[in-house]
């Protein structure tokens, strides 16, 4: 007799995470983004940017804490719904982060002065340390672009869909 194994996940499209879970999710998401920024700065940046991150966010920023949300976080339901790769989800989260925490735009601008307070392809390449993945996920036929989860403006800035940001914060 063969039994199916059931997998538990929360469908955050219709019922957002409970408040305490949502607050922890956002803290862990912010920590992951800050950890990505610190890593990019350590590889390609300077001490001034590290000081800026420290001043704005303190010593926080542990990427590992975010892994607990791999299957139950709001981004997990977006991944399943739109069949996104891990790289696409990372791009979506990094694009949404400045909308969630405005001060991150200063960190982004400090990492690569060419971005002028916006996320662009060059900054994503630094944050993800993978030029090919960024190009693949921002291609016209890729799910992120095709489904309009993010758009690439004529200025080169990568902007998340407002509905995505609202889902991430649970509203």
Give a written overview of the molecule.
There is one protein chain. This protein has helices at residues 19-44, 47-57, 74-82, 86-100, 104-111, 121-128, 131-137, 143-146, 162-169, and strands at 150-152, 158-160. It has 171 residues and is mainly alpha-helical. The chain has a two-stranded antiparallel sheet with strand order 1-2. The longest helix is centred in the first third of the chain and has 26 residues, at 19-44.
Which short descriptors sum up this protein?
171 residues, 9 helices, mainly alpha, 56% helix, two-stranded antiparallel sheet
- Coarse morphology: globular
Instruction: Estimate percent helicity.
Output: 55-70%
Radius of gyration over C-alpha positions, nearest whole angstrom:
16 Å
Q: Would you identify the regions where 5 or more consecutive residues have pLDDT less than 50?
A: none
How is the largest sheet built, in terms of strand order? 1-2
Mean pLDDT: 87
Structural class: mainly alpha
- Beta-strand percentage range: under 5%
Write the layout of secondary structure elements.
Layout: H1 19-44, H2 47-57, H3 74-82, H4 86-100, H5 104-111, H6 121-128, H7 131-137, H8 143-146, E1 150-152, E2 158-160, H9 162-169
Antiparallel strand pairs: 1-2
Helix pairs in contact: 1-2, 2-5, 3-4, 6-7
């Amino acid at each position: 007799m063969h039994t199916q194994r059931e997998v538990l996940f929360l469908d955050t499209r219709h019922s957002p995470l409970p408040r305490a879970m949502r607050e922890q999710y956002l803290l862990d998401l912010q920590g992951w983004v800050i950890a990505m920024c610190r890593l990019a700065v350590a590889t390609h940046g300077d001490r001034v940017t590290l000081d800026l991150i420290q001043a704005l966010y303190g010593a926080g920023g542990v990427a590992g804490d975010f892994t607990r949300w791999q299957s139950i976080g709001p981004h997990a339901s977006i991944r399943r719904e739109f069949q996104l790769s891990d790289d696409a989800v990372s791009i979506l989260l990094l694009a949404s982060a400045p909308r969630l925490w405005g001060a991150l735009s200063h960190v982004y601008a400090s990492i690569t002065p060419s971005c002028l307070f916006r996320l662009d392809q060059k900054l994503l390449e630094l944050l993800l340390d993978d030029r090919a993945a960024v190009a693949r996920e921002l291609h016209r036929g890729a799910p992120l672009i095709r489904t309009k989860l993010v758009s690439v403006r004529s200025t080169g800035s990568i902007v998340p869909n407002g509905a995505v940001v609202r889902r991430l914060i649970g509203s």
